[in-house]
Amino acid sequence: MQSAVLSNGKIVTADEFNSEIHGNSLYCYDKSCKAPVIFVKGSDHMAPHFKTTGKSEENKHHINCGFYRPLSFLESINKVKEYQEGMLKGGIKQNIVKINFNKLDPDYEPKTVEREEKEKKPIDPTEIKIKQENESTKSIGSLKAIVNLLTSYDPGILSSIVVQVKGTKIPISKLILHSDKAYPLHWSNELLETPYFVYGKVERVIRREKVYFIAFESYNNSKFSLVVFDKYFKHFSLRDEQLVGKEVISYGYLKKNAYNQDIKRSELSIKSDKFIQILNSKG
Ligand SMILES: [Zn+2]
Prior knowledge:
Layout: E1 3-6, E2 11-13, H1 19-22, E3 26-27, E4 38-40, E5 49-51, H2 73-89, E6 95-99, E7 139-140, H3 143-152, H4 155-158, E8 161-165, E9 168-171, H5 172-175, E10 176-178, H6 179-187, E11 196-207, E12 211-216, E13 224-229, H7 240-243, E14 247-252, E15 254-257, E16 265-269, E17 276-278
Parallel strand pairs: 6-7, 6-8, 10-11, 13-16
Antiparallel strand pairs: 1-2, 1-3, 4-5, 8-9, 11-12, 11-14, 12-13, 14-17, 15-16
């Protein structure tokens, strides 16, 4: 892990750690764990980091700790939500990314060809890498990329990800919401004017002549659906059995639908299959 907590509650990163200043009482960041950790100096092959010694039960990560084992997407997002605010306040180095789904949009027409610019830099283990075709800024260009990202790094490093949206920087954990969280925030006007990643389990698919609704399951009476309009049916080939009962994530602007005055609905309109990613059964 790249950061640890000192006995005074402050966070220290492996890059800045100095035992003369920080002492040697170091702990795991996870509140359910707090296992003692030690500092491991960097070498040519390995960046400096912290680790548990594993010598006894107290010196191992707790089974509920975010550093105990690799996490699934859903586990990972929950841990990042738990850690991110504190880690950013604690001063971990931010990884700034942009989200650009233009290429997935069937209506998008590229204006200019962006040139590939690659700089050679030494490898920094606290810096995330995102596989991308030809953009010089770190950018997330698909739902698959965000799922890969959240399952490729520990929640400590993921907590460093801040998304730049029109000049504002938003911690990534604020932009990824379960539908049961997104719905009440949406109707109490607490969401930002930006697209969101919304995930949840598909309860049913309703196919009408002019529109499809992909309704998500809810535990708190939220009414959240993905919506596909007829103009985009040709880009939408997912069958009901591929969706119903599956955990999925989608991306887009939420819109309020109060057409039926008794039922307030939140809808996220999508234009193609590429705006739904099915999460694996483990979530
Ligand atoms: Zn731990």
